[in-house]
Each structure stands twice: as structure tokens, then as C-alpha cells.
Specification:
Layout lengths: L1 E6 L8 E5 L12 E6 L3 E11 L13 E2 L8 H13 L4 H8 L6 E9 L12 H10 L4 E2 L3 H5 L5 H9 L3 E9 L4 E8 L1 H6 L2 H8 L3 H14 L7 H4 L1 E2 H6 L5 H9 L3 E8 L17 H14 L4 E6 L5 H14 L3 E5 L3 H15 L4 E3 L5 H12 L5 E4 L11 E7 L17 H11 L3 E6 L4 H8 L4 E5 L10 E6 H6 L9 H12 L3 E5 L8 E4 L16 E3 L4 E3 L6 E3 L12 E4 L3 H11 L5 E4 L9 H10 L5 E4 L12 E6 L2 H5 L6 H13 L10 E6 L5 H7 L3 H14 L6 E10 L2 H19 L4 E5 L5 E2 L2 E11 L5 H16 L8 E6 L3
Length: 821
């Protein structure tokens, strides 16, 4: 008998053994999707991890219900990659598969209810809610998740259980295939008309019926069947035929009914590969050519190269030239970007070179679209894939080069749920599986990457001048304390920034305003008693969103209508404290009523094409001032932006985290780089209450090297990366004391084995309760040399298992975050 070790999409550190039924043995392969029963009723999609003939001795394995694939949907390289992600980031391989596979490739079961045919309503007592369920079941089966809407309650399982105990209902599972192929209606001539030569006779007959004759003539004109009879095999899309003239739908139906035309459904791709004939290959400058040559030379010695190029230096053109070289030699390229917003603009630039002959993969695509991209990569229809972090999970073949643009961005790190991987580091490992190369690009490298480059682990190429010798922007620091004391502020805008905006608008230029906080205001406050509306589920204040007239929690999503009266003292003197992007947008509309102003943040970009609409409008000059969060800081390229204003600088710099200076420097430097990218030198104004901070002087002078050296010295003293590895452990429970005691148990276990100097905590994080779960953090700091990291991770996982095996800690959640950012 053949047995399969199956990866299931559940958070358990193991595979599950199933027996392959004889009829399916020939079809079952490593990497194939299989349908299996998990537990007594739940049907899920699993992945065959391995096949063997070793019958389990301690239990009788269940049979695989079906094999979904004729050829595996998961490659052997993916399984190797998934296993590494699982080991390195301390999560279950099932969690990796859950994140990696598009939802449309997962078949699961849904629970349904039906009436028991032996149910006797005369002898069975039912409650009112049970009566409602039974009445609706008399009209047909119901999904179990529909019952809550039916009864208008959150959890209907109590009523379902009671009905089952009374033998009134039956529960059953039904398979749910989430992927729906896209089809289109197509029309063609009945083949026998061409084969028999009857077409002329039919045409003569239809001359007496003008509307039907028009349909036939339109078809012949569109398909050129007379000159190329083979074109009739593929026919024409029904919609295209209708669009070709003022044709009658009823006439088309009549021709189909009379056997003149045939109609059929044909599966089509949701992803348009497009025409690739009109390619515009970028011509590199001499500096770019030299930079490209240095990268290629370093690839002879190093697997990873860091390209440190100032903003506006033309890194994207170098990437495109390298991609063209790889594709011409038969290789595949993965081009990673940190944000969907940046993906939108890069796609336009790539389309000018490659047409539409490349794949794009990100979360704004529908499940069905992602399945089709996945399938196209699997069947090697693309030589170039552009995507955000989840694109590393695609089924590549012959991956020759991975480009990680803006490699410093923390958007590459997955936070929740597991796997909490870093796409940059994962991409380097992925390229290694294929013996490919990785190019990291940025103007402001992460401390870890630059340290690796300085130490010779990575190759390093510097590109220190902007394309066409354009000057870097001039940065000015604005003292907001002086502005306030002189009463020169206009809302939250300094008089200096206000005057600059006015000047640039008069010159027909564009402006970017950067505030890394969405919403109208961080919180509301009663001016009489100081009451601040807070989230009932989290230890945070509710953020005010004026546009939707809600106050909401950015952690759990709780929202309520904006209060106009204090619930404590009944005062109506409610004030919005501080400001976010919404408020700055409102102030700009008042200060510059003639300007077209738009906003780009999470709230304004929730729909599929919202990024594209905003960016296209800004590029076309339809928007004069763009207000945004960090989305506007990430590699976007606009011709006419000459001024950038940076707000709330001090909050970024002084956030209590060891990476706060690094993040603040990178954000300010990067958003500054959006200004003056063509012939006009740009200006950047940074508003701060403390203009003497050293980091501001470094940003002003575009001095990354000095920043890096100062940051590196501090990191070494306080035992942070790149000198130490960090594993952050977060303990969660609805009871605060249980959370603390569980965290203390893990601290004691870790301290005994690793030593107290390597274990810090437990401590409450800044936000110590989220979604009614109390949090406690533990930080493990490990030297990079002399320790067996894999053994330490295994010990920490075993400590977690030991904790959760105790009855009082069974419901405690323990989350491991390796290399947190």
C-alpha cells in the first residue's frame, strides 16, 4: 500500500498520514493537491509532502478522497522553500501552505443542515428560534453560517446542537470549489456549411431576411472566413460580433436555432497577456552602463549584490536592462516591490518595454485572478513576475534573478498571521534554491543589508548621482516652536511651507505632503473633563475619521459614530487632538481653494483600482497637491513634483523602538527623493519642534554613511541586529494574569537554558490589549556566532508545547516573530 504524508492548512508542526486508494496511486505525486477528511466531518485540501510504504503502527490512516491534479500544483522547489520558511520562522508548514496557495486552489467543505425525514412536528417541542430554523429548512437545505443571519444572533451553534439532539435535523458536509473559470460566449458558422459549400446558398436565402443577413455578413467580415477557413474554428466572441454593428440579438438566436451559426462557452483567461510587439528598450547612460557592468562582475563572485543608488539615479532602467538580458538567455525574473501603489506605477513603465507579457501578483487581485497568475507561472507562461511579498510563494521554474526594490522597506515583513516571514530574506533563499542571483536596490539600505555588504557577504555597488546630473533636493528644517510663538501658523502649516506651496502652485508645479498617520485626528477629547473615547476591545483611543463621520480602532476595526456630547459630563465641547492626513487635506482645501487636492492612504485606496486612479491623475497633472502616508515615500516617480512637506517628524524619531531612528531617516530621505526628479531642483521642508536633532542634519545633507556609522555603534553597545539575532515572543490571553504567568513560565524556561542575559521580559507592550487579548512580550537576543540557532528554536517551540499542555494555559496563544522589524 502507498501512504502519503500530507500537509494540511492548520497550525500544527507536522504532516498527516493518509493511505492512497489503489485507483489513485498512479495519479498521486509529491506536490499534488488532495482532498482528505480531517476529523470526523471536515473536508480540506492538502498537499502531498512525500510518499512511502510504511504503514503507521499506532493508528489506522484514512483514505485520500481524491487527487485534484493531473500534474502537481506545487513544485519540489516550493516544498523545499516552504520547509525552510517553516523552520526559520518557527511556524507550521501548513500555515506556510495556507499563505502560499491562492484561495481559489483550496477546496474545502461547508456545513449544511437539512430536515430529518423522520421528524414528527406533532411530537417534538421546539423553541421559537428552533421553529424559525425548521420553517426555513422546509424550503430547502441551509448553510450553517446562514443561521446567524436568520436568527439575528452571532452564534447559532447552541440551537443547531439542540435540533440535532432532538433528531429534527441532519448535518452534512458539501464540497466547495472556490475557483470559477471565466468563460465567454463564442459564435461560429456551422462547419458543415463550409465543408459542403452551402454557404452561398444560405446567403442567397437570407437576403430576404435583412437582419439575419446583416449578422451573417458581419461574421464573415470580422473573421475573413473566405480567405482563411481555419478562422471559423475559433469563431468570434459573441460580444465582439454584437459590437461590430447594429445587429439584432433575436436574429443571432434564430440563426443558431436554424443551424446556421453555433454558440458555445469557451474558457478564457482573466489575465490579458497583450501585444508585445511594440517594445521600447531603455537606453542606459554611461553611468548606468558602468553600474550594470559592476553588478554583473560582482555576480561572478557573490550571489547577492546591494545596489545603493540615490533617489532618482535611474535604478529602474538598470533593472529593466538586466531583466531583458535574463529573458533573452531563457531565464525567469522575480521583481519584488514593497507596496501595491508602487507596483501600479512600475507596471506602466514595464509595459512600455514588455507589452503586457508579464505577470503581476498582489492582494488587490481577485481569488480567481490570482489562481490564473499562479497557473501561468506554473506552466512557464511568464518570464517576468512583478509582485509584492506574497509573490515569493509562486511556483517558479528556472528562476535566474530576484530583484528586491526598496529592500529596506518593512512592508516586506509579514506581521499577522503566520508565517511571519521577511520577503527580502526569503527571496535570497529562494534564489539560492535555483542557484540564481539576488539584487537588492535602495537609496537607504537597511542596517543589516549594508552591514552585510560592508563585510563582504554581499557585493556592493554605489550609484551616487541622479540621472542626467539632476541635483538632489534642498532640505530646509522649519522650527515649529518659533512659528507658534510668533503666531505665524496657518492650521498645522508653517508660514514657510505655506509660502512655498503658494509659489509652486503659481509656477504650475506639484506638491507632496507627507504625514505618516491616517484619519482626521488620533483622538477626540472633552475640553471640560478630559474624556477620550477608547476602544472597548483594545487599549487605544479611537481615531477620528471626519470623511465617514466615525471614530474607529485601527487595531480591531471597532467603530462608532462620532460623539458630539461627552458621555461623562454631557459637555458638547469636543475637540479633535493632533492631526492626520484627512485633517491636512481639509486644511489645504481651505488654504488653497483653487488647487486640486487628493489623499493617498489606506482609507482612500481600499478598492481594486484606487491606487491606479490616484497615481494616474497625479501623473496627468489633474492633482496639484497629494497628501499621503508612507505610501507616497516608496519609489514613486513624478515629473513635476518640486516640493515635499514632511509633518510630525518628532513622533517618528522618538517612537520607543530600537529601529525608530532608522525608519525615520529612511522615510524622510525617501519622501524627500520624490522632489525635483527632472531638471528643476526640488525643495523639502521638514517641520519639527526640535531642529537641533542630529538625525535631521544627516537627512538635510543626504548623509547616509554618517547615519549608518552612528546607528551601528549604538546597535553593538545595546546588542541589537546586525550583531545579534532577535526572536520576539508574544503571549496572548483574555485574562491578564494568565497572560503574564504564561509569559513568566517561558522566561524561566528560556533563562535556565539560554542564560538570563539573553532573555528580556516579560513586559507589557505599548498597546497591551488588542481584540480583548492581553499581551506580554519576551525578547530573546542571540549572538550570531557560536550558537546553534536551529536547536534554540526547537527548544523554544518545545517550551511553548510544554506550557500549552498544562490545563490552565491550554488557551494561551504564543506567537514567535523571528527577526522582527
Amino acid at each position: 500500500m502507498t501512504f502519503a504524508e500530507v500537509i494540511l492548512p492548520i497550525p500544527l508542526q507536522r504532516t498527516f498520514t493518509y493511505v492512497i486508494p489503489e485507483p489513485l496511486v498512479g495519479q498521486a505525486q509529491v506536490g499534488s493537491r488532495v482532498i482528505v477528511l480531517f476529523g470526523s466531518k471536515k473536508i480540506v485540501t492538502g498537499i502531498i509532502h512525500s510518499l512511502h510504504q510504511n504503514r503507521p503502527s499506532s493508528f489506522e490512516p484514512k483514505e485520500v478522497i481524491d487527487v485534484l491534479d493531473d500534474t502537481p500544483s506545487i513544485t519540489s522547489e516550493q516544498i523545499t522553500f516552504f520547509n525552510w520558511i517553516s523552520r526559520y520562522y518557527m511556524c507550521a508548514v501548513g500555515e506556510v501552505v495556507q499563505a502560499a496557495l491562492p484561495a481559489g486552489l483550496k477546496i474545502s467543505s461547508e456545513s449544511f443542515l437539512s430536515l430529518n425525514e423522520h421528524y414528527d412536528p406533532d411530537t417534538t417541542e421546539l423553541t421559537d428560534k428552533e421553529e424559525i430554523i425548521v420553517q426555513h429548512l422546509s424550503n430547502g437545505d441551509l448553510k450553517i453560517q446562514d443561521i446567524d443571519k436568520l436568527l439575528n444572533i452571532q452564534s447559532p451553534h447552541h440551537h443547531v446542537k439542540k435540533l440535532a439532539e432532538k433528531h429534527v435535523i441532519q448535518l452534512f458536509e458539501q464540497l466547495n470549489d472556490k475557483y470559477t473559470p471565466k468563460t465567454e460566449k463564442r459564435i461560429r458558422l456551422a462547419p458543415h456549411l463550409l465543408e459542403s459549400g452551402e454557404l452561398d446558398e444560405i446567403g442567397t436565402q437570407l437576403e430576404k431576411k435583412p437582419k439575419q443577413y446583416d449578422v451573417l455578413m458581419a461574421y464573415l467580415s470580422e473573421t475573413q472566413v473566405d480567405e482563411n477557413p481555419k478562422s471559423n474554428q475559433v469563431g468570434i466572441a459573441k460580444k465582439a460580433l454584437m459590437d461590430s454593428g447594429d445587429l439584432s440579438v433575436s436574429s443571432i438566436k434564430t440563426l443558431i436555432k436554424n443551424g446556421v451559426l453555433e454558440e458555445w462557452d469557451q474558457q478564457v483567461s482573466r489575465v490579458d497577456l497583450g501585444d508585445t510587439s511594440n517594445k521600447k528598450v531603455p537606453i542606459l547612460s554611461s553611468v548606468q552602463e558602468t553600474t550594470k557592468s559592476r553588478i554583473l562582475n560582482l555576480f561572478q563572485e557573490k550571489d547577492t549584490v546591494l545596489l545603493k543608488g540615490v533617489t532618482g539615479s535611474g535604478k529602474t532602467e538598470i533593472y529593466i536592462s538586466l531583466i531583458l538580458d535574463i529573458i533573452s538567455s531563457g531565464g525567469t525574473v522575480l521583481y519584488l516591490l514593497p507596496e501595491i501603489a508602487l507596483t501600479t506605477q512600475i507596471i506602466k513603465r514595464l509595459a512600455a518595454v514588455f507589452g503586457n507579457d508579464f505577470g503581476v501578483y498582489h492582494s488587490k487581485y481577485s481569488d480567481n485572478e490570482r489562481v490564473e497568475i499562479y497557473e501561468n507561472v506554473l506552466h512557464q507562461k511568464y518570464s517576468l513576475i512583478v509582485g509584492v511579498r506574497s509573490a515569493v510563494f509562486l511556483p517558479f521554474s528556472n528562476l535566474s534573478l530576484v530583484i528586491v526594490d526598496e529592500e529596506h522597506e518593512n512592508s516586506y515583513k509579514q506581521f499577522d498571521p503566520a508565517p511571519r516571514y521577511h520577503a527580502r530574506d526569503a527571496a535570497i533563499y529562494l534564489a539560492g534554491i535555483f542557484k540564481g542571483k539576488t539584487l537588492l536596490g535602495t537609496a537607504t539600505p537597511s542596517i543589516e543589508s549594508y552591514h552585510n555588504a560592508q563585510n563582504g557577504k554581499y557585493g556592493l555597488v554605489n550609484l551616487d548621482q541622479r540621472y542626467a546630473d539632476v541635483s538632489l533636493p534642498q532640505v530646509e528644517i522649519v522650527n515649529m516652536v518659533k512659528e507658534k510663538s510668533r503666531k505665524r501658523l496657518k492650521g498645522n502649516f508653517s508660514s514657510i511651507l505655506y509660502d512655498k506651496i503658494q509659489k509652486e502652485l503659481e509656477a504650475g508645479k506639484q506638491i507632496i505632503i507627507f504625514q505618516n498617520r491616517r484619519g482626521y485626528a488620533p483622538f477626540l477629547s472633552c475640553e471640560q473633563c478630559g474624556h477620550i473615547p477608547k476602544c472597548p476591545n483594545c487599549d487605544v483611543s479611537l481615531t477620528y475619521h471626519a470623511h465617514s463621520n466615525f471614530i474607529m480602532c485601527h487595531y480591531c476595526g471597532y467603530r462608532m459614530e462620532t460623539i458630539h456630547e461627552c458621555p461623562d459630563c454631557l459637555s458638547t465641547d469636543i475637540k479633535a487632538i493632533s492631526y492626520g492626513t484627512e485633517k491636512l487635506e481639509e486644511e489645504l482645501c481651505i488654504l488653497f481653494p483653487e488647487a486640486n487636492i487628493s489623499r493617498m492612504d489606506l482609507d482612500s485606496t481600499r478598492s481594486k483600482f484606487s491606487y491606479e486612479k490616484i497615481i494616474n491623475s497625479f501623473e496627468a497633472g489633474d492633482i496639484d497637491i497629494l497628501v499621503g502616508t508612507q505610501m507616497v515615500a516608496k519609489g514613486l516617480d513624478f515629473d513635476h513634483v518640486t516640493l515635499v512637506g514632511i509633518f510630525d517628524t518628532d513622533r517618528m524619531i522618538h517612537f520607543p523602538d530600537f529601529r525608530s531612528h532608522e525608519r525615520a531617516f529612511q522615510l524622510m530621505y525617501q519622501v524627500s527623493g520624490r522632489a525635483g526628479r527632472r531638471k528643476d531642483q526640488g525643495s523639502v521642508l521638514i517641520q519639527t519642534n526640535n531642529p537641533d536633532q542630529k538625525i535631521l542634519e544627516l537627512v538635510k545633507n543626504h548623509d547616509y554613511e554618517s547615519f549608518y556609522k552612528a546607528e551601528l555603534d549604538e546597535r553593538e553597545v545595546f546588542k541589537y541586529p546586525p550583531f545579534y539575532r532577535i526572536i520576539k515572543i508574544t503571549v496572548k490571553h483574555k485574562d491578564k494574569s494568565t497572560s503574564f504567568n504564561a509569559a513568566q513560565f517561558l522566561v524561566n524556561e528560556a533563562s535556565r537554558t539560554l542564560g538570563k542575559n539573553r532573555v528580556n521580559g516579560p513586559v507589557e507592550p505599548i498597546i497591551s490589549r488588542i481584540r480583548n487579548q492581553f499581551l506580554h512580550d519576551i525578547t530573546i537576543k542571540l549572538e550570531k556566532q557560536g550558537l546553534k540557532l536551529a536547536s534554540i528554536k526547537e527548544f523554544l517551540l518545545n517550551s511553548r508545547n510544554m506550557l500549552q499542555s498544562q490545563r490552565s494555559y491550554k488557551s494561551v496563544r504564543v506567537i514567535f516573530d523571528v527577526d522582527p522589524v
